C-alpha cells in the first residue's frame, strides 16, 4: 500500500514540473583562465615561429647520444621454470597392512601415515614387550621422543563386549 501512495506523489503533475525545469535558463559556465585558451595562442605568428624553429645546440647534443640495445636471451617456457625450487624430502615406503589400497605409498622420513599409526598403536597395545618405543622408532624412521608421546597420548579404539549376565547385573543395580 505504501508503494502505491509514493507512486501517486511521484507521478503527480510530472509534465508541468518537467516543462518548468526545461524552460529555466541554463547556468553560464565559469570563466576560463586566459592561458588555457590555446586557440588564441596558435594565431600569433611569433609563437608559431618559436614552435617550428630548430635549436642547433639541442640538435648537436642529440647527435652525440648513441643508444645500443640488446634483446634479452630468449627463454623457452616449459611451465616448470615458474615454480620455486623446493627441498627434496627423503621418502620411505610405507608398511602396508590390510588397507594397502587406501593408504599412501610413500611417506617422508620422520612421518607416518594414518594406517601405519593405527597399526603401530594396535601392535603396541597387543604386544607391548615386542613392540617397544625403540623398535617402533627404528621401524618407522621416527624420533624416540615423538614415539613416546604418540604411545602415551593416543589410544586406538577398542571394542568390548559384555557378557549377557553382566548386562543384566548392570541394569538391576
Automatic annotation (TrEMBL):
Protein name, UniProt field: NADH dehydrogenase [ubiquinone] 1 alpha subcomplex assembly factor 4
Subunit structure: Binds calmodulin. Interacts with NDUFAF3.
Lineage, opening ranks: Eukaryota, Metazoa, Chordata, Craniata, Vertebrata
Region feature (Disordered): 17-44
Gene (UniProt): Ndufaf4
UniProt record, GO biological process: mitochondrial respiratory chain complex I assembly
InterPro entries to which the protein is assigned, alphabetical: NDUFAF4
UniProt feature, compositional bias: Basic and acidic residues: 17-27
Gene Ontology CC terms, in alphabetical order: mitochondrion
Source organism superkingdom: Eukaryota
Similarity section: Belongs to the NDUFAF4 family.
Amino acid at each position: 500500500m505504501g508503494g502505491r501512495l509514493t507512486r501517486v506523489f511521484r507521478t503527480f503533475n510530472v509534465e508541468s514540473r518537467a516543462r518548468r525545469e526545461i524552460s529555466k535558463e541554463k547556468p553560464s559556465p565559469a570563466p576560463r583562465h586566459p592561458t588555457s585558451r590555446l586557440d588564441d595562442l596558435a594565431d600569433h605568428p611569433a609563437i608559431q615561429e618559436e614552435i617550428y624553429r630548430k635549436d642547433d645546440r639541442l640538435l648537436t647534443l642529440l647527435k652525440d647520444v648513441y643508444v645500443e640495445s640488446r634483446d634479452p636471451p630468449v627463454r623457452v617456457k616449459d611451465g616448470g621454470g615458474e615454480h620455486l625450487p623446493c627441498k627434496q624430502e627423503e621418502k620411505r615406503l610405507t608398511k602396508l597392512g590390510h588397507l594397502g589400497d587406501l593408504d599412501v605409498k610413500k611417506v617422508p622420513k620422520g612421518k607416518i601415515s594414518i594406517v601405519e599409526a593405527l597399526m603401530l598403536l594396535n601392535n603396541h597395545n597387543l604386544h607391548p614387550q615386542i613392540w617397544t618405543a625403540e623398535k617402533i622408532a627404528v621401524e618407522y624412521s621416527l624420533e624416540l621422543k615423538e614415539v613416546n608421546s604418540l604411545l602415551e597420548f593416543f589410544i586406538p579404539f577398542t571394542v568390548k563386549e559384555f557378557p549377557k549376565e553382566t548386562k543384566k547385573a548392570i541394569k538391576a543395580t
